[in-house]
Amino acid sequence: MPHLTSNLEDAVSRRVQSAIKELLENKHLFQSIQIDEKEFDAVMKEAIEFHKIEVARVQPNVKLDGTPYLNNVIENLKKDRDQLLYSNWYFFLESSPPRGAKPVDFKDLPSLQLPSVRVSCVSRQCKGTLQPHNSGFIGLRSHFELQSFDLIRPGQPFQIFSLPYQCQNCKEEPLVFLVKRDNLKLTLVGRSKFPEVSVPSYIPEAQSKFYKNAIIANQTNFVLAAALYLRTVVEQYFYSVIPDEQKKAIAGNPTGDELADLYAKTLPENFPSNFPSLKKAYSDLSVILHSGKENDEVKKDLKGAKAKATKVKAKKTNPKTVVKEVKTAIQKKEPMVIAIAKKGKK
Ligand SMILES: [Zn+2]
């Protein structure tokens, strides 16, 4: 029943292409996209219903539900789905479509066009801005265009693809992604150029290096390192705005918490107390560092935590969430804090 599988083939093809696109556009190094067999339940159900209508048209008195015949059709459709999902996948580039049609009775996933993507380009011309990138690169030697390293493991595909792209704005050097496929899980395992991290202009020049490192560490799942860099951003900022005589009044080197208290005093009196402040951000980051736990470990803790109260507490100290919150506080709220503080001083 080839017509039953053709919709399924389309659905799997579209999903694999969208997974690659999402991986390259939105995921960072060593992050993954997982495709699930269940995602194709609806299209399979639709194919079965359509088949039942077709049969009823020819033989109106035959009821297919529950018959061995229909069960067989369903089983075959599942086999076709698995064949499409667990065969080796192959891609071709926009610049070089495959020659010839696919063979009759070919049940694997047909070769798919590698989708175009919008990703940052770090060339001198593009300066880290998001630019459309087409798959392939004009001027590459043809047999080096797209590589796929496939392990022979029938039914349990393992492949590593190297996927070249060309920025449509500057067309400078190729951007090559490495993508690992383990069964239905796609992981971004490499890229030839690291995406530019843009630092907002209100982050002081002296702290921008640490801010940049914090974002990179966070994107690559080194959450503890991200917390440490962000805390350094905040601490150095404290140092730069607290008047010298106040710092000197503390014997020895002031601790971060002492600095946070002094910083809070630099805010104007009319500063709203419910406003997210760097003092709170600093203490949240310290909690992460003292817990010494990365994101996954906290997730495991959450799974193990039975008491509701413990769960709520654990959720609050999820490092990834705190880093995100602090980043947002610095990005969105703190410029206002800084602006208000400056106003108050005048
Ligand atoms: Zn470019």
SSE string, helix = H, strand = E? HEHHEEEEEEEEHHHHHHHH
CA distance, first residue to last residue: 79 Å
Give Rg in angstroms.
28 Å
Structural class: alpha+beta
- Total of DSSP H or I helical runs spanning 4+ residues: 11
Please state the average pLDDT score: 81
Structural write-up:
- The structure is a single chain.
- With 346 residues, the chain is of the alpha+beta class.
- It folds into two domains: 1-196, no CATH class; 205-345, no CATH class.
- The protein contains eleven helices and nine strands.
- The protein has helices spanning 2-26, 41-58, 68-86, 205-219, 223-241, 244-248, 256-266, 278-291, 295-304, 308-316, 319-345; strands at 32-34, 91-92, 112-113, 117-121, 129-135, 147-151, 158-167, 175-182, 185-191.
- Strands 1, 4, 5, 6, 7, 8 and 9 form a seven-stranded antiparallel sheet that branches. A two-stranded parallel sheet has the order 2-3.
- Zinc ion binds next to loops.
Quick summary of this structure?
This protein is α+β, with helices and mostly antiparallel strands and 346 residues long. It is 50% helix and 14% strand. Zinc ion binds at residues 121, 123, 125-126, 131, 167, 169-170, 172.
